[in-house]
Amino acid sequence: MKNKVVIFGEMLWDCLPSGAVPGGAPMNVALNLHQMGLDSRLISAVGNDADGAKLTDFLKTFDLPLNLIQVSQSHETSKVLVDDSDKENIKYTIVSPVAWDFIHWNVEMDEAVKNADAFVFGTLGVRNTESLSTLIKLLHHQVVRVFDANLRPPFYDFEVIETLLGFADILKINEDELEIFADYFNLDSDIKTVCEYLDNHFPMDLICITQGSKGAMVYEKGKITSHSGYKVKVQDSIGAGDAFLSGFVKSYLEGKSIEETLDFACRIGAFVATQKGGTPKYDVDNIQLSNEL
After folding, report:
1. Which domains does the chain have, with CATH numbers?
2. What is the mean pLDDT of residues 78-91?
3. How are beta strands 144-148 and 170-174 bridged, if at all?
4. Residue 269 in contact with residue 241, Cβ under 8 Å?
5. Is the pLDDT of residue 291 over 70?
6. Which residues, 6+ apart, have CB-to-CB distance to 278 below 8 Å?
7. Nearest to 271 by CA among 292, 250, 249
């Protein structure tokens, strides 16, 4: 039986200088998991406009179920202005407010989360109180709850983050975000110090720290497991972290070891970095990485 994963949050158009492409971390994760053979569902919203129709048409090309995606009559489909002049450090300007700021709770989404194996959520999708209220209701279900920090200034609030940490079984965070956490909690910014604090103050099972081209590591009850990543020729880094998280969730739900889980996640993340855009189509069993640098 396929593992079931529900993902909550934003779906949008990334408006690059070269043109608009579908994006949003939760949508990217949903599409990656779907391509990996899991039963993935996205809880999100688009506007009743041409951009929304095009975005849902895009999801149809992946055969991703659309039943948990709401159509807003009063707010437009999300757009993000992207500066990709530095391929290793993409900058984003996120338009507000948009349709996914107003995701309303319903029985269908509640049942989907209740019956899932994992539930993935982040911070951007709950910058508005309505979507935050919906997420909090869904987080009370006892499934594997995966918190992808995905901090996008100025759209995060540490009072909200602390609430979400209180529900998280797994936290995924990058190096820059870890420094922001360290500053907020008044800690030294080394990885072990921050992870020990989070582990002692919140009921999570493990923390995954991504390090871009340097790979990733997992902190689990005092032990750190590292992977140096795969050295590849980067097309762009959009979606690489989302692919990594998807690979991590897949392997974790399959009961793989932390070493195997990290390796698979790093491989998927590196592959997406060799492709253009955040949601390339692929056969997970036949991924070929470009020549190492």
Report:
1. 4-280 (3.40.1190.20)
2. 81
3. parallel
4. yes
5. no
6. 14, 21, 22, 23, 28, 238, 239, 240, 242, 243, 272
7. 292
